[in-house]
Design a protein that fits this description.
Elements lengths: L7 H7 L14 E2 L3 H5 L6 E3 H13 L3 E8 L4 E12 L3 E5 L12 E8 L3 E5 L2 E6 L2 E5 L3 E7 L5 E2 L4 E6 L2 E10 L4 E7 L14 E7 L2 E15 L4 E7 L24 E5 L6 E9 L3 E7 L10 E9 L3 E14 L4 E11 L1 H15 L3 E3 L5 H10 L5 H7 L3 H13 L5 E8 L2 E12 L2 E9 L8 H15 L9 E6 L4 H14 L5 E12 L11 E5 L5 H11 L4 H5 L11 H7 L4 E10 L2 E11 L12 E5 L7 H11 L7 E7 L2 H5 L6 E9 L3 H12 L3 H12 L3
Parallel strand pairs: 27-28, 33-34
Antiparallel strand pairs: 1-4, 2-10, 3-4, 3-6, 4-5, 5-9, 6-7, 7-10, 8-9, 11-13, 12-13, 12-15, 13-14, 14-17, 15-16, 16-17, 18-19, 18-21, 19-20, 20-23, 21-22, 22-23, 24-25, 25-26, 26-27, 28-35, 29-34, 29-35, 30-31, 31-32, 32-33
């Protein structure tokens, strides 16, 4: 449309074109903007060629036009909606709305008003023929641009509205929407009145569709009209930027991917399919650009089922929210979008794109050469002779477990590798270990061209965690990591955070004794007065009291004893669906109804974790002084036949229990648990630690290892 002669007066009038009121000769709406028509002689001209193109598009799209009519009896102007039946280069045929037929003969047709959401054009048509169902008219040589909005407005349907202001509540429907404001029609709830509403104060407006929230925020009323029982309000969000997540000292990396990814989604308000190129991408969100006048993204708006696409082949589905809208250069705006939720499968693909774009040697969840992976584990000493002795009898089952994990699609594990020419130089894996807890394991690295890769591996798994813990569908309330106390690298980067934070309810460290127990040993009966039973909620207070005083940590939160996860698929079923085994049960060892120990019997597919942290019996001794080793081994003898191996690992807490009985202890492990609510603090700690230069790190490790 021609914009050369548009001025502020037309823009202002264009915002008020919507008809108001009701009643009269026809089932239509009063047109109360006569001054707008008085400006027609001075309005910008639209040439016939452009008019024909617009009318052809409206006809093709079955879009409505507004007929401007005059009632001669009362000299009132009306607008009624009509549909174009046909359109040629010379004339148009319009059909009257069914509810208006027959149209009185004395009603005068002044013209057509075409509103495409951005421009308002008046066509002063000349009627050729008038009949009962409609009329035909010649296309005029020119039209007039009555006004032009700053941004396009879109008609909306099926969006529910809730408006709240200091106890006043009104409900209704969303009528139309733009990136700057939206119009709603609402009515007060019973025993409420618009008298209570202060139009000078902001109100909270929420927009819903099918019970799912699409927008919620404070808005100011730009204008309103109507009575005490129903009103139309034009509202605009007060905040131009929202802060979805806590601010961090260091921003996560933003990358420009080449060729660019794009987003494809159904707009939640206008139900149109939209595509936008991604300007930059991070693990937690992205930004897109659009023209100011054609903008359809409003801060605070939530978009369910948005797809991030890579060349139209790979699709990553998520729920996203617009968090800001900023002007960039003339006529352009940039919109930032936070990812609110994403399934694990999509997040693995997103992570691979991010790390691989930043470093071609870094890969997330890529299909690996399994021989290269096994050689890496042996070369780095991750599978040492004693560990191999444990797994060699079931090595073929181990290989099959890893083939399915690393070569088939699944939603329980992700792995990061640092490799060159097919040879692996760094590896770490994370998988879902309990119902709402994930475990980091298999952290190993070796130098590449003289450069240490351990920090690179650690940094990337932390970037992966930065997005992972935010998404509710992934169900990560806690993150776990087992490591040997003498292993200085994880003790610095994991244990160091727990010690620096000093809050075991945020990040805890529990020391366990690790012992191998034979499964085919002598079976002694449990002495009289003792019993091994299923753990019950009645045992929980005594267990919590012991653990609270011994540790105060997060282990019981991970085990979720006595808790259910209503509405969510059990982890055992998730693993079974992907062809894996993962289950656990909890037993209580009692003496005359007094709790002496809790035994968590863990089962998983062979080799899921090479140290068998999920194929063991975890023993929590609540009364070390009152539990003889002979009684515990008698209880274990009832449980070990469940395992198909010669030995079963035991993880015993507290760690001093076996040694105080004079038993030979194989080794110790620290169990590090992080409450992901403190993910921001942990990432800031890690950013600080991983920026230490390599010389300082080497000196720190040498100092730790050297004798005083």
């Amino acid at each position: 449309m021609n914009e050369e002669r548009a001025d502020h007066r037309f823009t202002l009038d264009a915002q008020h074109i919507h008809p108001h009121g009701g009643g009269g000769l026809l089932p239509s709406r009063l047109f109360r903007h006569g001054k707008l028509l008085q400006s027609v002689p001075h309005a910008p001209v639209i040439k016939q060629k452009e008019l024909i193109q617009t009318l052809h598009y409206l006809h093709f799209s079955n879009a409505p036009v507004q007929l401007l009519l005059t009632d001669p009896k009362h000299e009132e102007d009306f607008l009624i909606q009509s549909i174009l039946e046909s359109c040629t280069a010379e004339e148009i045929r319009c059909r009257w709305p069914l509810e208006t037929i027959p149209v009185p003969n004395d009603v005068r047709l002044q013209g057509l008003i075409v509103d495409d959401g951005l421009s308002l054009v008046l066509l002063p048509i000349r009627i050729i023929e008038r009949y009962e169902e409609g009329f035909s008219a010649a296309i005029p040589e020119e039209g007039r641009l009555l006004g032009k909005r700053q941004v396009r407005t879109h008609v909306c349907r099926g969006i529910d509205v809730v408006l709240i202001q200091n106890g006043f509540v009104a409900r209704g429907q969303l009528i139309d929407f733009s990136s700057m404001a939206f119009r709603v029609r609402v009515h007060p709830e019973t025993n409420s009145s618009f008298v209570w509403m202060n139009t000078d104060s902001p109100c909270a407006i929420s927009l819903y569709a099918n019970g799912k929230i699409l927008f919620s925020g404070l808005c100011r009323s730009i204008r309103q009209n109507g009575g005490l029982f129903e009103r139309e309000l034009v509202a605009s969000p007060i905040g131009k930027e929202i802060r979805r997540f806590q601010k961090r000292k260091t921003r996560t990396p933003r990358l420009r991917i080449t060729p660019p990814l794009f987003v494809d989604f159904t707009h939640p308000f206008i139900q149109k399919q939209i595509q936008r190129d991604i300007h930059n991408l991070s693990f937690a969100g992205f930004s897109v650009e659009e023209t100011a006048e054609e903008g359809i993204l409003m801060p605070g708006m939530i978009i369910p089922g948005l797809e991030i696409r890579d060349a139209g082949v790979l699709k990553m589905t998520c729920d996203a929210q617009v968090i800001y809208r900023r002007k960039t250069w003339k006529g352009r705006v940039r919109c930032g979008m936070a990812i609110l939720d994403m399934d694990f499968h999509s997040y693995r693909h997103l992570s691979h794109i991010m790390v691989h774009a930043g470093n071609p040697q870094a890969c997330f969840s890529s299909e690996l050469d399994m021989d290269a992976l096994w050689k890496f584990f042996f070369d780095t000493g991750f599978i040492y002779p004693k560990k191999y002795h444990m797994l060699q009898s079931s090595r073929e089952e181990f290989k099959e477990t890893y083939r399915k994990l690393y070569r088939e699609e699944q939603k329980i594990e992700a792995h990061f590798t640092y490799q060159e020419n097919g040879r692996i130089y760094g590896h770490v894996s994370i998988f879902r270990a309990y119902q709402r807890a994930w475990m980091v394991h298999h952290l190993a690295a070796r130098p590449l061209k003289g450069k240490r890769t351990g920090l690179t591996v650690l940094k990337n798994v932390l970037l992966f965690f930065d997005g992972l813990y935010r998404y509710s569908s992934i169900r990560m309330d806690h993150m776990l990591f087992y490591f040997r106390p003498e292993n200085h690298f994880p003790n610095l980067f994991f244990g160091g955070f727990a010690r620096d934070l000093g809050n075991p309810r945020a990040c805890s460290l529990d020391l366990f004794t690790y012992m191998n127990h034979p499964t085919n040993g002598p079976h002694h009966s449990i002495p009289q007065g003792w019993q091994l039973t299923d753990f019950e909620t009645s045992h929980l207070p005594e267990l919590e009291r012991f653990y609270r005083n011994a540790s105060g940590g997060l282990l019981l939160d991970v085990l979720r004893l006595g808790k259910t996860d209503d509405g969510n698929e059990k982890l055992e079923e998730v693993y079974r669906r992907h062809g894996f085994l993962r289950q656990w049960r909890t037993c209580a060892l009692l003496k005359e109804q007094s709790l002496k120990a809790v035994l968590v019997v863990n089962h998983s597919s062979p080799g899921l974790n090479l140290s068998e942290f999920l194929n063991n019996i975890k023993v929590i001794v609540t009364d070390p002084a009152g539990l003889p080793w002979e009684v515990l081994t008698a209880a274990l003898a009832r449980l070990t036949p469940e395992f198909q191996t010669e030995i079963v690992p035991l993880l015993i807490y507290p760690a001093h229990y076996p040694s105080e009985l004079g038993l030979r202890v194989d080794k110790h492990y620290l169990l590090w648990i992080l409450d992901t609510q403190y993910g921001k603090e942990y990432l800031e700690y890690m950013e600080k630690k991983t920026t230490i230069n390599l010389r300082f790190l080497i000196r720190h490790l040498l100092k730790k290892m050297a004798p005083k």
